[in-house]
Structure formats: structure tokens, C-alpha cells
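dude i think i finally got it to work??
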Amino acid sequence: MTAPDAFRDQPVLHGSTVRLEPLTVAVLEDYLHGLHDPEVQRLTGTHAVFEPDGIEEWLRTRVDHHDRADWAVVRSQDGAFLGEAVINDFDPANGSANYRVWLAGPQSLGHGYGTETTDLIIRYAFDQVRLHRLALQVHEHNPRARRVYEKCGFTVEGRLREALLWQGRRYDSLLMSMLGTDPRPSM
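look at this
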């Protein structure tokens, strides 16, 4: 069994091209910009409308939630905000949780930032928190993300048929997971 407050002391995770820092109000403007990015909304299937005051309060309270981990993904080279990575839906009794990530803007794509972010999350989840299972969902119209997840060791385990309605078209969502006992690809 994993400790119920496993995310109490959320660390900064360092990679060669990205750094994952605990999410705070310091990234408010960039975070809002990313949430309103049409491509982020499309790829994540987000229909929600985000209000600045609500997001500011959300960012202020992240440090108080020990049943999840929320990070700002920043570029190591210059500290530029790239997006968000989250471990949530934590089930300590079963040692499982969910993973989600979004990166915004053309500066975030095609540089391996998503792959490195996902690898950092996997190592943290399995090696430090000692989770048994990490799961995620990816919409079928986001093949780039699916390739990243597969490259990092996630396996497709199911399909939610027509789970997303986006601009009049229905898309399937793929369920993917990785176990702490699964082999990890060398990155």
C-alpha cells in the first residue's frame, strides 16, 4: 500500500531539456495562455472555459493537496513555461494513479519535451512514490501523444468508443497503462 500523502513533499524533477517544478501561481499568465490554446483544447478534448480568478485560486491551492502532484513543465535552458504534468486520481490502497500532460505552443513540439517529461514522471511515480500502476487516456486524434506514451513504455489496454465529441465529430479514447514491474525502455 502506498502512503495516502505520498505527494506531500513534491520535488523538482530535473531532465536534460525540461525541469518539472511544483505548479504555483508564479506561472499564472503562461498557464492561462496554455489553457486557452486551441490546439491544447483540441488534443486534450477540453470543452471547459477557464476564468482567471478560478485558475489563480487553483494554482494557489496545489501545495495543499498531498493526494496528487501538479508540475509546471519548464525548459531547462531558459525557464520558459511549456505546459503542465499531473499525477492525479491517486488510489493509495491499490498503488495506482492517473497521468496527464499538456504542452502548449509551437515552441513545445518536436523537441522531445513530452517524452522527457513523461520519462521523469514514470521514474518519480515508480521509483520514489512506489506506485504499482500509472494510467492515462489519449484521444485517437492525438497520435503524437500516443507515440510518446508507447515509446516511454505505456501499453494500450482498452478503448472508449466515441468518448469525445469535438466539433461535430466523435473520437475514441485509448486507455493506456504502465506497471512498475513492466520493462522500461532506455531513453
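The chain has a mean pLDDT of 94.
im so relieved honestly
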